[in-house]
Amino acid sequence: MQWPFSRRANALTSSAIREILKVTEQPDVISFAGGLPSAATFPVEAMQVATRKVLEEHAESALQYGPSEGLGKLREWIAAEYSRDGAEVRPSQVLLTTGSQQALDLIAKALIDPGSRVLVETPTYLGALQAFSLFEPEYVSVASDDQGLLPETLTPEVIEGARFLYALPNFQNPTGRRLPLSRREALAAIAREHDLPIVEDDPYGDLDYQGERLASLRSLAPKQVIHLGSFSKVLAPGLRLGYVIADDALIAKLVQIKQAADLHTPSFTQQVVYEIVSQGFLKGHIPEIRTLYAERCQAMLAALEKHMPEGVHWNRPEGGMFIWVTLPESLDSTELLTEAIRERVAFVPGAPFYATAPQANTLRLSFVTVEPARIEEGVRRLGRLVARQLGGTSEHLPLV
Amino acid sequence: MQWPFSRRANALTSSAIREILKVTEQPDVISFAGGLPSAATFPVEAMQVATRKVLEEHAESALQYGPSEGLGKLREWIAAEYSRDGAEVRPSQVLLTTGSQQALDLIAKALIDPGSRVLVETPTYLGALQAFSLFEPEYVSVASDDQGLLPETLTPEVIEGARFLYALPNFQNPTGRRLPLSRREALAAIAREHDLPIVEDDPYGDLDYQGERLASLRSLAPKQVIHLGSFSKVLAPGLRLGYVIADDALIAKLVQIKQAADLHTPSFTQQVVYEIVSQGFLKGHIPEIRTLYAERCQAMLAALEKHMPEGVHWNRPEGGMFIWVTLPESLDSTELLTEAIRERVAFVPGAPFYATAPQANTLRLSFVTVEPARIEEGVRRLGRLVARQLGGTSEHLPLV
């Protein structure tokens, strides 16, 4: 059977890296490759209490079809939480989605025609590129440094005709970097002046190790910013629950598109999450996640310091789940990965995170799912591999 | 803020009927408008047992990210169930989706380019038209009668260049009709001969009141048919759990597209549903749903017989949730709806279910969520309204 695939489907290629990374599920591999939160933080007990309550008190609405916009009382809760930060959010401005990933798909459908200009960071979140690319945009990579994108490079020529800028200001996936307040303000000023839509993807905003928060882009340019939030990193990703906050005109279009995409996000998971968060659970829970992740981040930074040869650079994240490593330019992290897998350690090469002009000598390390002792051992193996490649020898040293 | 909407987003119009139908949520309205299953059939106790077990024994995998293809053991269970019907299904041919609606979106993305020919029944499921239309196909409505589409009208000229035929052979939404075996065989022969993909949407197949099943299109043309199944009508729609069965090459593309759409369907709901169905729960449960729906279908048929004036026609479904009513040609069911709402009874006008050339004198009645006594009263009001419109008087009779 020859399927009559669409142009967008024909353009899809299968990922070689995905195939390589399949082995990382084997327990003897120390994997820094996952983008997974730590299962140690999953609220199992709160889930037990909440599911019992939902099935005792709200079974009919939890099991029936629901509104495409999402559960009314959860929209109200989210609106109230965000309104506390100063920039008011009305419940009508909140749309629940099946994970933040779905929000990216809905926004792409609403705003991208073939050839539309879309501005992205350098590098940026791979899942967003996958969602947007199905709608065939022309990407423009905005110059960025260790602190994030450089607003001054967003000249009128770059912005001209852009459908939106996609930004992750807090502890970006893949780099872990955070955009400083002054750049947020500069970016928001550009958005307001040029009516440039900004998609602010913010799954990691709560994970500042000091419990601080910089002003969101949304609070600085409420009309132009489409804010994406998620319960994946503060509760559990297996619930697939995220949300969009934007002005009513955009939400109205997204609701129609959402209805065609999956009618609505599961009523059951929305009811359960509402029961958990409306009891104030996150106030105590998020600090626990922060403490755990901060400790593991420190363990990885210490291990990198100890085991990486000269010429390797990395950033020092203030929150989130990732560290970004830049190897000497002569090295290719995809080649390194094949070697690393043999030594039972894994990471994600950086190249796929670039919309244009991939930098082959970069890689992403995730530290949150690995115990500190294993973090040290994994980084030790990586450091030895890098040193060996820099030294030009390709023999396999014994693992002692 | 002027949003730079895509062409597809600009083409979206808000539904006037949806606005009218919002009042049907008021408890004093007898609503035959919903496409909802009866909440009386929801497996609340089984859900309680299953959620408890999942959170005690599989909490980590139920709350963590999972594979885009879906939960392995649930794919195996579905494959085994379908294999019993004779045409073997392998687990690799099963993709779990966030409700069947998502399957429609994924298939549209995989197979439709702007202007692609898509064949649909007359009338057809509105939600499918909504999903497909975002990808800008050219619809061709295939001639149909009270028993479904007429295979002999699928000439080579009609099929030429078609990306797929979308069909609902069992108790179709909106008409409730079922395609006879001889037509299924004729259709499958055409699919095999011309390599015409057929999307077989089958959410109601288990709801035959006699517990019978006609051969699926998939079993008759396994290579060409993309089969869609759902737990919405046999367990609960609020779980948003459906699946696609198709050959490996198509599934591989759909998995990539699914990953961009929402990463994966919630792990938690998949685990819970697996616990329920793997215990054999559906064997006892589905007959209960059939009995309830058959009884309510009979109640509505009897009421139509008693209260509808001459010149009104309807079908006699052998399963499912819907009856399709054809009024005399002089009447417009959308106008009738406005009157009906005043008399506190609701239905869905038939026009939106046509991809081309809407028939304004048709309407869909759903009987499954209404008690028999209320069914009779609702149909009585409707019959009186129709009689009044046929009689040419527009006065509001008192409701006694």
Question: Mind explaining what this structure looks like?
Answer:
Two copies of one chain form a homodimer. Chain A is of the alpha/beta class. Chain A folds into two domains: 14-35 and 283-391, Aspartate Aminotransferase, domain 1 (Alpha-Beta Complex), CATH 3.90.1150.10; 44-279, 3-Layer(aba) Sandwich (Aspartate Aminotransferase, domain 2), CATH 3.40.640. In chain A, 42% of the residues lie in helices and 14% in strands. Chain A has 15 helices and 15 strands. Chain A has a seven-stranded mixed β-sheet, sandwiched between helices. In chain A, strands 11-12-15-14 form a four-stranded antiparallel β-sheet. In chain A, strands 1-13 form a two-stranded parallel ribbon. In chain A, strand 11 (313-314) and strand 12 (322-326) form a beta hairpin. In chain A, helix 3 (44-57) packs across helix 12, helix 6 packs parallel to helix 7 and helix 13 (281-307) runs parallel beside helix 15 (372-391). The radius of gyration of chain A is 22 Å and the shape is globular. The N and C termini of chain A lie far apart (52 Å). The model of chain A is unreliable at 394-400 (pLDDT under 50). At the A-B interface, helix 1, helix 3, helix 4, helix 6 and helix 7 of A face helix 1, helix 3, helix 4, helix 6 and helix 7 of B.
